[in-house]
Amino acid sequence: MKLEPLGPRFAAEVHDIDLDRSSDETIAEVRAALVEHKVLFFRDQQLDDDGHVRLGRRLGELTASHPVVGGVDEAHPEVYALDSSDGGFADVWHTDVTFVRRPPLGSILRAVTLPATGGDTNWADSQLAYESLSAPVRQLADQLVAVHDGNREFGYYLAQRRGGRGNEWDGEVVTRLDPVEHPVVRVHPETGRRGLFVNPGFTSHIVGVSEAESRGILDLLYAHLTKPEHIVRHRWRAGDVAMWDNRSTAHYANRDYGSERRVMHRITLRGDIPIGPIG
């Protein structure tokens, strides 16, 4: 497996690999590289939905497509379709599904239909962002807890389009999206590195501070997380697959392709409960 790093400590393109036909040893190398590089890109893959699911199962335990949104079809309940013709945009910085108790470990995304131009995706390294904060701000962030609320994005969908009944997640059928609390700084369970674990898509506020203080703290952390030196940008082409560690990244899909259609299929790997540096 040949890795081409895209930054000193973040993101890599993997060459000369067929994800659907790789040996168990190679898949184990991919899994290790995912933790180290946080985002991996694979060109010229031939995956369909069946192959996508097979790959995910070799890397970990798959979740449902989403807590609220159904799978792409009955045969593939694990596959989440992001279709711009049906409002499937992701043009806000976010980390996938942080509004549940056990957010996904990681995600695997493949291009299905691409616009002629535009539609790039950007990833931010939350660990590098944390480490490059000044010491006093790191110490403050270490002590904080934030609320993540899926109602902001999916409450209406659950109520109106799914009739109040979502998918099974962590052994329970989702019937409401109760806000959850996660540490602002997450300790990676495999490496022990700390990273920022807040995102504009799902984080509503900081616990135990005033609304103005919460807004100020989150604005500071978001601005720092998305500094250019913390970001890698991927220009999609047919056959591309991206894989990322949801515990150490955030991402954003550019919505710059007008009325052209963009369709991406995603699966997610079951994760664990985020743990902070304190408690």
TrEMBL record:
One of its GO terms (cellular component) is cytoplasm. GO terms for molecular function: 2-oxoglutarate-dependent dioxygenase activity; metal ion binding. Keywords: Dioxygenase, Iron, Metal-binding, Oxidoreductase. The keyword Membrane does not apply. Pfam families: TauD (PF02668). Belongs to the TfdA dioxygenase family. This is Taurine dioxygenase. The gene is tauD.
